[in-house]
Records
---
Amino acid sequence: MISLVLGVETSCDETAAAIIKEGKHVLSNIVASQIDLHKEYGGVVPELASRNHIEKIIPVIDEALNTANVELSDVEGIAVTNGPGLIGSLLVGLSTAKAISFGLGIPFIGVDHLEAHISAVHLERDVSFPFLGLIVSGGHTSLYLVNGYTDFKLLGRTRDDAAGEAFDKAAKLLGLSYPGGVEIDRVAKKGNRQSIKFPRPFKSPQSFDFSFSGIKTSLVYYLRKYPNPQADQIADICASYQEAIVETLVDKSLNAAKLNNLKTTVISGGVACNSRLRELATEKFNQEGISLYIPSLEYCTDNAAMIGALGYFKLKRDEKSELNLNPYSTTRPRYIRGKGLVLENKPV
Ligand code: KG4
Ligand code: ZN
């Protein structure tokens, strides 16, 4: 029976490796961030990201092994993100994982980055199934019904921008630095969240989908009407804009939990670091008597511990990937009668 898993994550701008024991115990969790590399461009430059992963991947894996105090030969399985993400970036982690798997003669498994974000919860607590999972990251905003460690059913997702994208684009419009979500969270603390009324899209309780492009567009119009805002006005804009996104996320997920009769909800992904989201979600879920778990900040943002966790549970079920496994850039949902939305992880 497998115990020690090496997790590898290179889907975007973090090179990460972790050693996980039995899917729950983090022996090491190393993340090399490329934020400084991409800062001057105001967003991730895919070509630079891939090249940087190539430089970092082996040192990061070495550090994960050293910190965990284990030898490479002690590792019994490898879990690696194979999508969604930037193809050039994904290929670095995937090829490295395949090479180690082949060299050591141990199994490897490709895992979905979004499902892994949800699995981050297992690193810190025991959660009983089924539960609702909300993933809020830079590229995705999706609701899942989670029936088991490896059983995820998509309930809804954003039809346009992701919540993190809405934060990042707004920060750019306001002249704030990268990554935008972190900056808006910081600046919003000084502002009044009731000062400007930004739209709350897709209020229909029947839909589990999201849409954030309208909020962003209304900010564009607002700035055309009131150009060159001063620092205190920027704080008010950030606070009000953040409130519109956060309220939408909380209300939609609360509604989804209630309609699906779920007593537990997990929120994860980079945007789950947002202080107002953590505060409002805790308040509203408490009021409804639904348990809410949001992982610690280090497990909400991109990391390889969550990849190792999900990979462990898949390997334990004897799921394995073949050496010809391809990465995929986006997850495409397809409606199948009787099954609802089903994700197709298509290779590119
Ligand atoms: O999960 P993640 O680290 O990478 C992806 O898989 O996309 O999420 C990154 C996203 C970025 O859009 C970033 O601006 C956002 O998470 N983010 C935040 C905060 N911290 C990170 N958004 C709002 N408030 C924060 N405190
Ligand atoms: Zn992520």
Note: The domain at 4-118+300-347 is CATH 3.30.420.40 (Nucleotidyltransferase; domain 5).
---
Amino acid sequence: MTEEDRLCETTLARLAKDTQTPGYDRGQIQTGIVHLGIGAFHRAHQAVYTDAVLANGDSRWGILGVSLRSADTRDALLPQDGLYTVAVRDGSGDSFRVIGSITNVLVAPEDPEAVLEAMTSPAVKIVSLTVTEKGYCYAPATASLDERHPDIVHDLGNPAAPRSAIGFIVEALALRRANGLEPFTLLSCDNLPANGETLKRVVTRFAELRGPGLATFIRENVAFPSTMVDRIVPATTDVDRSVVHETTGLRDAWPIMTEPFTQWVVEDHFPSGRPAWEEVGVTFVADVDAFELMKLRLLNGSHSTLAYLGYLAGHETVSDVMQADGFGAFVEAMMDEEITPTLPPLSGFDLASYKEQLRERFRNPALRHRTWQIAMDGSQKLPQRLLNTIGQRLEQNQPFGRLALGVAGWMRYATGIDEKGGQIDVRDPLADEFRKRTEGKSSAPEILDAYLGMKQIFGEDLASNAAFHTAVGAALEKLLKDGSAKAVLESIGG
Ligand code: CS2
């Protein structure tokens, strides 16, 4: 591979004709947004909407991306002048578009000061985040700041050289306040219920630990609109890189693979201004909660359930799982009978087609979305994806056998041993604790109790609820005895 065929400003003209390019003068773009957590999802979603705003002629909204851990994204994108390809794929063919909205990428651990400097620039009006659930440094069951989290302890002791997103945000707000600059709007784009409020809760608590004045300032002056974000973005593989190279004619070190569907619903509360995202497909609403719950419970709840049960049944991707006997019917019944009755009404919204479309998206044969990828960080995902829904079913005194099978699937998966006795590479901030708690235990009641002791996931109420105990215990028993494929078939009466 030569440098001449690498995607960058000077090679853009050589792209295959049907590849869409930025089409605006990138030299004129200012940085108006700092984005923390510049992973694949951000590059398939917010950066694409913002690219369209820049193409509409408003050059104030370039994005400076920050990686909080590794240098991979910076190393891939900077030699390409921040450009990258988004490949949109479904069964009917692929389309390719080069995105130009990223103006720079910083790697926080290498130079925290540079990140703070970017965040305190007067031109920056928005700090957005996709740092995943664990990036909020909270206890999953309560979504309140984990004050013993090592990064939080570190950042309280070293405010000028933080490690966590929370530490960066609070220090940058303190500096802006000291410099007489208006604060930025904080825009959480992670899959959490009431993500704006959650961010506000952890940020103000952290600020309180630094000193009362700062916390009051933040509470009174900083906007935290909530958002619902949606687009399926599997991890990029080398095969994907080759496809992009062959089709577009240029080599991209880190292209993004995604689906045609994309959705962004945002609360319209941006006191310092925002891009005209409404002109490029974003929906602005007064309150996003009902959308967020719908998406988290129907899409992400089903996704996680399919990931655990599908992985255990030996399936590599979500579309493979959807083709396997019984799984499609299982997820449909789970959505209709167990999840839908827990959702707040959304007037004028066609929920039946939304659910049908979700299953169609899961079946997308062109996306190789690995069950293993979705299975990651289950301890951080379970409460908002499955447990809160179950909590509501319990209040309604209604059955929740399929949701319970999803939770049991996670427990079985997190033991680290698959149905054939092979190792599972369990990625989770609490993976060590799972191992310690379940080691040497083989019966369903023992394993169940080991997990339910983790109050940071299950909370007090659920862990001690007899009906929950019985349902998840029975599901786990079935999984251990019969395996996932059979348990799924039985739960749809097959
Ligand atoms: C997935 C999500 O990996 C996961 O946990 O459930 O990333 C999902 O693909 C997105 O939320 C879709 O919007």
Note: The chain has a mean pLDDT of 97.
